[in-house]
């Protein structure tokens, strides 16, 4: 079920809006440094889609869709060297379906309190529907992979593209793009996707429970591609890339019931004018508002949006920024992050320059000012500029305000980079 998702996303972007790029002449507002260059068919990995995460020592961890010892992708660590520069270490090379391991890890990673890493691979496993995995570190520096769940063996969902999240009890939550019990009437018979929970059991095993099956009927969302977010009450929030009242995607809420089960409701259906095709996860601010991005929209292209809860349970959507499909970027496939001052930061897959097929992408900042959110481009990626091309990652930040991310393409060997943006 897994395919070349980078090409799929680019083709989808072409359908969303016709793009005319303007060459950016402004100088970069920040300094970009490439920390690592990936190589095609390298044992070190190639073509990272997801962003990186940081540990307390400042080391960076991430995944690549390709490369590694078997060319099915990797989990990697970047450590800074005392004299400058960074060293990459492959923590795990995925072995593929024939070895009952995953392929094509698409999402980012998370840590638990003991320093173990958790993630998903979108393909592979004995049933071909992907896996959820844990990596456990050892004193000798090696890491051991443990499969928590194999997807695609029934109605449990297939093709997880996301980072997992923990609740306070140690349960994991995520979504799958396909699978479940409902047909999407698209001819593939693969299902519309699910929200799932993984619960640890005595003895070290994990049990998967499907919390919700998406359906093509009744204005429900379909094909979730983003991670989830929990509120303080234990409700889950996420997005679907299609479905809803206008079949252009939704934001949804899942609420646990006191006796058993979960109730899902659509809190916003995108109509095109306010954005369409949200690939990104949602994030909360301190006031309980939700923020995210859409890859498309009929009014000036892609968006960054805000959802505000109202008395009575409804939500109001507001577009904070319309990307104009030229110098300021287009196709934000990843979510945004906040800094301490309340500014938002993100990446776009395209735009910013006319030297790539869709534009090479940007890193941007949105600053709240008197009810508006003016955009500032921090960095424009340039084809063959050795700085990377086409970032689709959610950024990470450190205490000094530096930003870290990945590009799917470009760099010294054209197969992606890990980069740092210094303000």
Textual characterization of the structure:
The strands form nine sheets. A four-stranded antiparallel β-sheet has the order 1-32-31-30, with no helix packed on it. By secondary structure, the chain is mainly beta. Residues 6-28 have low confidence and may be disordered. It has one helix and 32 strands. It has one helix at residues 5-16; strands at residues 31-37, 53-54, 60-64, 74-80, 86-93, 102-103, 110-111, 117-121, 123-124, 131-137, 143-150, 165-166, 172-176, 194-200, 206-213, 221-222, 229-230, 236-240, 242-243, 250-256, 262-269, 283-284, 290-294, 303-309, 315-322, 337-338, 344-348, 362-366, 375-380, 396-397, 403-407, 417-422. The chain has one domain (5-422): Neuraminidase (6 Propeller), CATH 2.120.10.30. The longest helix has 12 residues, at 5-16. It is globular and about 55 Å long.
Sheet of most strands:
4 strands, antiparallel
Strand order of the largest sheet: 1-32-31-30
Low-confidence stretches: 6-28
User: CATH fold name, please?
Assistant: Neuraminidase
Strand content: 35-45%
CATH architecture: 6 Propeller
Distance between the termini: 41 Å
- Helix-strand category: mainly beta
Q: What shape does the CA trace take?
A: globular
> Portion of residues in helices?
under 10%
What is Rg?
Answer: 20 Å
Kindly state the mean pLDDT as a whole number?
90
């Amino acid at each position: 079920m897994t395919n070349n998702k980078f090409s799929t996303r680019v083709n989808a972007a072409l359908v969303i809006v016709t793009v005319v790029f303007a060459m950016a002449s402004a100088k970069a507002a920040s300094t970009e440094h490439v920390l690592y260059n990936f190589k095609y068919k390298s044992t070190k990995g190639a073509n990272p889609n997801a962003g990186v995460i940081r540990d307390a020592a400042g080391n960076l961890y991430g995944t690549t869709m390709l490369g590694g010892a078997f060319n099915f992708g990797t989990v990697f660590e970047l450590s800074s060297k005392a004299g400058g520069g960074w060293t990459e270490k492959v923590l795990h090379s995925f072995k593929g379906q024939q070895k009952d391991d995953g392929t094509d890890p698409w999402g980012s990673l998370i840590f638990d309190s003991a320093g173990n890493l958790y993630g998903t691979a979108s393909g592979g496993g004995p049933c071909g529907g992907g896996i959820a995995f844990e990596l456990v570190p050892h004193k000798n520096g090696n890491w051991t992979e443990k499969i928590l769940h194999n997807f695609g063996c029934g109605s449990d969902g297939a093709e997880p593209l996301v980072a997992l999240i923990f609740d306070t009890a140690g349960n994991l939550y995520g979504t799958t793009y396909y699978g479940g019990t409902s047909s999407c009437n698209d001819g593939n018979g693969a299902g519309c996707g699910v929200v799932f929970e993984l619960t640890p059991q005595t003895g070290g095993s994990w049990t998967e429970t499907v919390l919700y099956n998406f359906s093509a009927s009744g204005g429900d969302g379909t094909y979730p591609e983003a991670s989830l977010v929990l509120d303080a009450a234990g409700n889950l929030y996420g997005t679907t890339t299609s479905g809803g009242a206008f079949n252009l995607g939704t934001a949804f809420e899942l609420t646990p019931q006191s006796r058993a089960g979960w109730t899902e409701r659509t809190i916003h259906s995108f109509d095109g004018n306010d954005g369409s095709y949200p690939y990104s996860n949602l994030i909360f601010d301190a006031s309980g508002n939700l923020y995210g991005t859409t890859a498309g929209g009929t009014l000036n292209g892609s968006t960054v949006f805000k959802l505000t809860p109202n008395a009575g349970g409804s939500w109001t959507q507001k577009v904070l920024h319309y990307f104009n499909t030229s110098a300021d970027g287009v196709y934000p496939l990843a979510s945004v992050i906040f800094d301490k001052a309340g500014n938002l930061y993100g990446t776009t897959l395209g735009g910013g320059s006319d030297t790539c097929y869709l534009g090479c992408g940007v890193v941007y900042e949105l600053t709240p000012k008197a009810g508006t959110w003016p955009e500032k481009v921090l960095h424009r990626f340039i084809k063959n500029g050795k700085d990377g091309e086409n970032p689709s990652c959610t950024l990470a930040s450190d205490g000094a305000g530096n930003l870290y991310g990945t590009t799917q393409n470009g760099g010294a060997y054209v197969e992606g980079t890990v980069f740092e943006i210094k303000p």
